[in-house]
Predict the 3D structure of the following.
Amino acid sequence: MHIDIISVIPELLESPLSHSIMQRAQDKGLLSVAVHDLRTYGLGKHRSVDDYQFGGGAGMVMRCEPLAAAIDDLQARGEYDEIIYLTPDGQTYDQRRANRLSLGTRLLLICGHYKGIDQRIRDAYVTLELSIGDYVLSGGELAAAVIVDSIGRLIPGVINDETSALTDSFQDDLLAPPVYTRPAEWRGRKVPEILLGGNFPAIESWREEQALNRTRERRPDLLPPGE
Ligand code: ADE
């Protein structure tokens, strides 16, 4: 999987993508991520990428020409499965979308800033608009990091324990059950007996029940009606 990201603050993406599982995915050659500085395509002496909005109003808008030049340049290197614009008015990102996107081979993520990007770029190039939640970030970079991380860990071979990503919360529309490690008793609080006995079918049923209870309590909206 290859992911290109267009950003005016590429530094914001350095740390999230260069540690832990994301670094391992890249070291193993399963994921490559390239962050492209939009200013390289900026206009004039000041490499300008934004301008006042037509019709007046506070906030700058990211101009068409630098974005189009960047996208054309990157698209010439290979077709994308999706050209994604990160924006609070996009469709809400979730695990189902992460699963689907992780099956692709090339993605382009466009990070907006200020008031966002000129609508004509959205109309001409963007194939998918995603929001990571109902709040406004200062730019799309943190949203892009969330998306790369959640997709990257789903690529087969990235996580050592192959089954681990499948037992995450949301993977089967259930929240994950509680987990425990040593010691078996801490400050008088005991690990549930069932987990210590080695009866794996019974442990599996216990986990399913706990996952269902937790989902009923915290996120009943995830369950089909009547569950
Ligand atoms: N850019 C600003 N806010 C955002 C959000 N909530 N999701 C995706 N991109 C954004």
Observations:
- The two ends are 37 Å apart (CA to CA).
- Residues 200-218 form the longest helix (19 residues).
- The helical segments are 14-17, 20-27, 64-75, 95-102, 119-124, 141-152, 200-218.
